[in-house]
Request: fold
Amino acid sequence: MGRVIAIVNQKGGVGKTTTAINLSSALGIFEKKTLLIDFDPQGNSSSGVGIERDNPNVYEALIGAISISDVIKSSPILETLDVIPSNMDLSGAEIELVKEYSREYKLKNIVDEVRDDYEYIIIDCPPSLGLLTVNALSASTDVVIPIQCEYYALEGVSQLLNTIRLIKKNLNKELNIMGILLTLYDKRLNLSQQVAKEVRRYFQKQVFDSIIHRGVKLSEAPSFGKSIFHYDIKSRGAKHYLALAKEVIER
Ligand SMILES: Nc1ncnc2c1ncn2[C@@H]1O[C@H](COP(=O)(O)OP(=O)(O)OP(=O)(O)O)[C@@H](O)[C@H]1O
Ligand SMILES: [Mg+2]
Reply:
């Protein structure tokens, strides 16, 4: 059965989607059959791999309107990468699911149906610790936490770790923190170096060796619906996301 990895941080703009797109693509490049689930109503990881935020989408599968196999699309960029797209419809789920039976397991129920078909399933989470993220954590075997090497990097991280602890205790015993990923690193800035040092001192071996540097290519690629490997294979971002995927495969 495949590993299911949620990319989580309730802080916005820390590189969750960039990591979801490029880690899933890198795993695909390593010939691992991979499914990317866009679980953010913003739909950025769908468009980032060249898939329209149209119907059918993850919301319809979540509420049981259609089966998951009808929502899965082959990515236009890699044969080994499939995608479940998302769009604004998903924002309604946060409220609608509240009154439903076993509301925390809606995503798990559909993910379990296809878990045998993939070696890796990557879930891009929204910037909140609401019911969508709880669903993602309940459906996952592993968590990757991107932390930006900037001011307030650790803001909210203890709350996030506490949420993960509670989910592990009450909803998903299998859940494991795979690693913390330093993102948006700028080696010219003292601050970046300090944050990276502090995160490593605090989390030690939990921090991935690979660091994702701030780079213009990484920010440009999604607007072309391409992973960094299809946009500029020679870029530093491509090299670092490949290195991250290797670590993920080894962990
Ligand atoms: N390593 C990087 N170098 C340069 N730009 C980056 C990098 N990582 C992310 N970005 C840019 O920063 C912005 C936020 O990144 P991203 O969308 O991946 O974060 P996010 O955590 O998914 O945000 P949200 O919380 O809104 O979902 C985007 O414009 C993205 O292109
Ligand atoms: Mg995002």
Q: What stands out?
A: The first helix runs from residue 16 to 29. The mean pLDDT is 95.
